[in-house]
Amino acid sequence: MDIDEVFKVAKDKQKVICPPEQVFVRQDYDYLLTDGGDLIGDEDEYNRLRTTLKNIGETEFYIQENLGATITDRNEPCKITIDLTSDYNEFKEKVRSFDAPVAWHINHFFIYGKNKDWGIYIAEFPTINIIGCDSQLADKFRQVFSISGNGFAELKEFIASEFQSNPDLLEKFEINYKLEDKD
Questions:
Q1: Per-domain residue ranges of the chain
Q2: Residue 156: how many CB atoms within 10 A of its CB?
Q3: Which DSSP state fits 105?
């Protein structure tokens, strides 16, 4: 599947698309939030994600850098494929392969598979993960990442502090990701 079926990916890294802008193509997605920094918190969460993705027909998933949102001289984004037969340690090893080229400065990543009904955006600013998915998959992702409602109530204070210097961007973020308190 083409990443452009799930995410709005800028062809020109000078015109990067990242939050508070809407990064997902489909406006009918449900949006769920988790704290960011990493896709996976621990081995149990990885196994829940892996099982869920297998159950919706995935055999692998992809992690691709949002190049324009990353401080780099590179012109091509780093991308890795995670086979769902990989265990947690293999997953961590693959992710570590990003360390050298990406150097983990300011980084934003697209996570997606062949099924266009889901995607995860890892944002550096605000430091959260945004899960966009078809409403029929929302409960599955809530279980994977232990999200109550859409996750906004738990993160609202943190997100507000991230946008403290520009409240208009916070409002734009809330509107773009339909983030009323639904918990």
A1: 3-10+28-176
A2: 16
A3: S
